[in-house]
Amino acid sequence: MNNVNLIGRLTKAPELKQTASNTSVLTGTLAVNRTFKNQNGEREADFINIVAWRQTADIIAQYCGKGSQIGITGRIQTRNYENQQGQRVYVTEVVAEHVDLLDSKNDNQQGKSSGYNQQPQQNGYMQQGNSFGNSNPMDISDSDLPF
Fold it and tell me: Locations of Low complexity compositional bias (predicted)?
């Protein structure tokens, strides 16, 4: 199974191009925060190359810019090519097959809501509500963990 889910921010405006057959292809880099902190107490980020095709590419290009937060579902792809110096270059990237816009291009440029919000996809999980919302936080120490 090759399935990837990421939430992060675009590091720069994504680049939209058209293939010879007029198919949209978009490339960019997504900064994804790690779930843990380093020795200095800071969160580090991984910078993951993404590519999107057709309508997904058009949507990202239209509504997202540098700093936009997006969620993507896709797959890892590896490819290689020979550069101008004759060296073999290997690329690993995530092909975005579905995108959730968590804020818009204007949100980042103006620092406020732009009026465009893509409604989250309604599914059984979202309609059931948050069953953990009414519970109290748990106090767990490191010695309670089995690892």
Answer: 115-130
Instruction: From residue 9, give the alpha-carbon distance in Å to each of 91, 116, 143.
Output: 20, 18, 35
96-144, pLDDT tens digit by residue?
999 999 986 665 554 433 333 333 444 433 344 444 555 555 566 666 6
Distance CA(97)–CA(73), nearest Å, equals 6
Pick the CATH number of 4-112 from 2.160.10.10, 2.40.50.140, 3.40.50.2300, 3.40.50.460: 2.40.50.140
Of 53, 127, 62, 128, residue with least CA distance to 94: 53
Beta bridge partners of 29: 49
